[in-house]
Structure formats: structure tokens, C-alpha cells
Amino acid sequence: MTDTPLIPLVVGNRTLTEGSDGVGRSFDPATGALVAEYVRAGEAEVNMAVAAAREAFDNGPWRRMRPFERGRILQRIGELMLARRDEIAIKESTDSGKPLRDSYWEVDCSARFFEFYGGAADKLHGSSIPLGPDWSDWTVKEPVGVSLHIIPWNYPFQLIARGVAPALAAGCAVIIKPSADTPVTAYEFVKICREAGLPEGLVNLVNGRGSLAGDLLARHQGVDQITFTGSVPTGERVLIAAASHAVPCNMELGGKSPQILFADADLDKSLPIIAGGFLTHCGQVCNAGTRLFVERSIHDTVVEKLHARISAMKLGAGVDDPDMGPLINKGHRQDVEAYYEVARKDGELLLGAELPTAPALADGAFVRPGLVVGADNRTRIAREEIFGPILTVIPFDTAAEAVDGANDSPFGLVAGIHTTNINKALGVGEKLRVGQVWINSFGVGLDVEFPFGGYKLSGYGREKGLEALAAYQQVKNIAIHHPMP
Ligand SMILES: NC(=O)c1ccc[n+]([C@@H]2O[C@H](COP(=O)([O-])OP(=O)(O)OC[C@H]3O[C@@H](n4cnc5c(N)ncnc54)[C@H](O)[C@@H]3O)[C@@H](O)[C@H]2O)c1
Questions:
Q1: Do the domains 6-253+461-476 and 258-447 sit in the same CATH topology, yes or no?
Q2: Sign of the CA dihedral 303, 304, 309, 315?
Q3: 201: Cβ below 6 Å to ligand 1?
């Protein structure tokens, strides 16, 4: 007998405790302790999940319900999330390693997605188009069909909600493929959907290996649309799979986001924002602000202040709500450690050289935050997505130089600008090739209303806000010729 929970697959109204690719294991990144086992889907279960989603979409009650009734069920999902926020947050911190306050944010933000898109479900209007005498013409927004959501490990609960809420609001059925590193809270998500009264088959859960279950799903002829959130190399594989049956994709990929700090900024306000921008969830955030462009006159002061702030940070297990938790696993820690070597070659590594030695941290995937100076924006440390807590500080003399440096990147997800001069802020913001510009701020609270997504290698399509609904809708035009008899 074991007390380790087993995360099943959920296909239609069935909960499968066995799959044709065996069982996977998920561990607490802070201690290495086993958190859960999960059933891994193979081809048979992938086919079952797609068939269940197809049946729910093609013949189920969801599309026949009035939109406001669908909206009420979605809002009920949000309410149930809030009612269970303690339980979900603790599970999320144990499975992903993130500090408890960030897991609470995940749950609260997920509930906001369901409130927001629940409210939008009955407002998905088409338009009427003037063709001239004897014609009537209008558009209707129809759901795209079966929508596949491939999820990374950094925000396992919130990133499901971010894509699934608008997909359901638009009338789609969904299949969720969580990361093999963080399968736990996806099951809580599906249980809440069932409890809220979502018709069976609309939300299906397929855990498994990316290279097997993920690939089979992305290639499946029964899938009509894919929302992928993850790394660029995997995203490229998913795009090739999607091309094999010509389905549209929303791609939310990586980043190397710039923060631009001018000498006139209020440092007491800006520096905590800048530090949080690259340290949140141990730097494992797609929009982490890992390149700091600093006006040269304040470079040394800023480095000194950041050094003091970062050195004082307390590391610990996610459930203890430390300043910073661990990386996702020791394999990823090796990758991040390799970047500390890269930092030494490309510039000067002021902080982060040694792994933490405290006995309480010995079994976890902990690293210290890294601070790099003297590296050019063209070096690897300033160019590659590390997905760890390393900040590269680069001085500039003019606003034009800061803009050029910020834009000189393969990525274009978000950017931060810190200044008390609004003309400078808006002028610089206009020139940045990114999907979102933060001025005297960086990152989100519970703001789900605005669009989010990347330029360049950071992807395409938009999540959040009303813009996200477009990915889950098709536009049908109806034209009637009605000449007077
Ligand atoms: N832009 C955003 O909104 C956003 C948000 C969070 C994370 N990210 C990015 O995610 C990355 C980190 O997450 P990760 O390491 O889990 O990413 P990853 O690319 O390794 O995996 C993402 C998902 O793809 C699946 N997968 C792997 N191979 C597959 C295949 N061949 N076919 C289909 N699916 C496959 C994985 O199992 C996982 O569920 C970073 O690059 C980060 O920037 C982006």
C-alpha cells in the first residue's frame, strides 16, 4: 500500500487509472520527495480523449445552450477555485516549488479568467456589413472546435485557465496536456469543472510524455486548434505537427525581456520591481526581465543596491513562502549552473557563483540569484533564455542606445521602462518591438483584461483580454440577395 496519490487521465466521463505508457512520477523540487504518480497516455488514450472531445463538441449540449447559461457555468468554476484556493495553492507549491504567495496568485488569477470569460460568453457578436441595395450580409462567430492546450511546468494551473476559459466561452471542447513535471493541479482543475456542471467530454486531461502523448495530440486529425505555451524548440516541433493537418496555433514561447532604467527614475520604487521582474519563481517566468539597461551615470549605484537586495534573499521550500524557491528539478539546475560559467566568460559574475550549502536546502534544486556586469548585449548570457534567476546589467548613454539594445534580441515578449519623464517613457515604449510595455511597473496582478503575447521568437497570437477569444472562433459570413419582387 502507498499513500502517494495517483493522477488519472480524464476522457469524457471516464477516469482512467491505467494508460498504455505506464506511470510517471512528480517530485517536490525543494526536497526531492515524491509528490504524485500520474497515468501516462499512449496512442489508445490519446485517441479516446480526442473522440470524447469531438463527441462533446459535435453532439453535446454546450453549443445548444444559451450563451449566458454557458457563462454562468464558467463563473461557477471561478467561484469553486476561490473556495478551494488553500488546497490548490499548497498542492501547486509542493509540485512546482514556487513560493506559496505565487501559488495563491495562480488560483486567484485563474478564477479571474473564468469570471472574465464567463461574462464575455454572451457578448461574442458578429457584425453587419453594408453591401448595398437588395443585400443583407452579416458575420457570426462560431467555435473553432476541439482545442488542444499544451502546458509548461512554470504556471501549471494558471496557464490552463488562461487558455481554457476563453476556449470554453467561445463554445469549444478542450484537451489539456500538462507538463510531465507538474501534473498535480491540472486534475484539481478538471474536478472543479465537473463539479461546476460542465457537460461531460468538454474538458479532457491527458498527462504523458511530450514526445509521445503531446506529439500524438498535436498531429491528431480530430484536433482543430492548438494553444501551445512552452519553449521555442518544442514550439517548432508542435508547429510542424500542426502543419500536417493545417490547424491554427497560438504560440506563447520564451523571452529575454529588457528593463530600461533611466537616471531620473525613483530608485526606491523601481529597484524592487526590477528585482521581482527577474527573481519571481526563481526566474522561471517567460517574461522575466533578465536584461537591465541602466543609464551609465547610475550604473554603479544600481549594481550596489541590487547586490545588497539580492544577497539578503532567503531561499526555501515553496510551502514555506520563502523569498525564492528552487528551480523545477536538478536537471534544470545543471542547465542554469552552466550559464553561471557562461556569465564568467562573457562578463563578471558578481553573485550566484556557488550553490547554497545550508543542510535544509541540500536535497532541493536551489541556486543563488546571479548578477552579471560587463557583458555585451551580444553575448550568450545577454541573448539566450536561461529560465533561471540571472540578471545581466548593461549600461547605456542615450535613450536611442537603450532602445537599440532592447530590440537587439531574437525575442520580443515584454519590456519595462523606469523613468519619471512621461514623454521619454512613451517615446521609448513606441519604439520597442515587444507585445507589452510596462512603465514604472513590470508583471501582473490580477489583470486579465489586457492582451498578452509576443513579437518575433516569443510567438504569436494573444492570450488574455477580449483578443484571446479570436483564437477559439471562426468567422462565418452570410450573404442574402433579396431583390424586391
Ligand atoms: N509566453 C508564455 O506565455 C509562456 C508562459 C510560460 C512559459 N513559457 C515558456 O515555457 C518554457 C518552459 O516550459 P517547459 O520547459 O515546460 O517547456 P517545454 O517546451 O519543454 O514543454 C512545454 C510542453 O510541451 C510538451 N511537449 C514536449 N515535447 C512535445 C512535442 N514533441 N509535441 C507536443 N508537446 C510536447 C511538454 O510535455 C510540455 O507539456 C520557457 O521557454 C518559457 O519561456 C512561455
A1: no
A2: positive
A3: no
Pairwise CA distance, residues 447 & 272, whole Å: 20
What ipTM was estimated for this complex? 0.96
179 alpha carbon – ligand 1 mean position (Å)? 8
Taking the C-alpha atoms of residue 281 and residue 308, their distance in angstroms, rounded to an integer, is 20
Q: How far is CA 318 from the centre of its chain?
A: 19
Residue nearest to atom 16 of ligand 1 (CA): 152
Measured from the CB, is residue 151 less than 6 Å from ligand 1? Answer: yes
Whether the CB-CB separation of 250 and 471 falls below 8 Å is answered with yes
Q: Would you say the CB of residue 254 lies under 6 angstroms from ligand 1?
A: yes
Domain locations along the chain: 6-253+461-476, 258-447
Return the ligand 1 atom nearest residue 217 CA. Answer: 33
Catalytically annotated residue among 115, 188, 252, 295: 252
Sign of CA dihedral 179, 180, 185, 188: positive
Nearest atom of ligand 1 to the alpha carbon of 237: 31
Report the largest interatomic distance among the alpha carbons of the chain, rounded to a whole angstrom.
89
Q: Which of 232, 256, 286, 452 to mutate to test the pocket of ligand 1 (most atoms within 8 A of CB)?
A: 286
Q: Give the residue, by CA position, lying nearest to ligand 1 atom 5.
A: 286
Q: pLDDT 10s digit of each residue in the chain, 485 long?
A: 468 999 999 999 999 999 999 999 999 999 999 999 999 999 999 999 999 999 999 999 999 999 999 999 999 999 999 999 999 999 999 999 999 999 999 999 999 999 999 999 999 999 999 999 999 999 999 999 999 999 999 999 999 999 999 999 999 999 999 999 999 999 999 999 999 999 999 999 999 999 999 999 999 999 999 999 999 999 999 999 999 999 999 999 999 999 999 999 999 999 999 999 999 999 999 999 999 999 999 999 999 999 999 999 999 999 999 999 999 999 999 999 999 999 999 999 999 878 898 999 999 999 999 999 999 999 999 999 999 999 999 999 999 999 999 999 999 999 999 999 999 999 999 999 999 999 999 987 899 999 999 999 999 999 999 999 999 999 999 999 999 99
Residue 82, helix vs strand vs coil: helix
- Per DSSP, the residues of 161-192 read HHHHHHHHHHT-EEEEE--TT--HHHHHHHHH
Please state the atom number of ligand 1 nearest to the C-alpha of residue 215.
32
79 counts as catalytic: no
CB 336 near ligand 1, within 6 Å: no
Radius of gyration of the chain (CA): 23
In this structure, whether the domain defined by 258-447 belongs to CATH 3.40.309.10 is answered with yes
- Second-level CATH architecture of 6-253+461-476: 3-Layer(aba) Sandwich (3.40)
Alpha carbon of 233 to ligand 1 centroid (Å): 9
124 lines ligand 1 (CB under 6 A): no
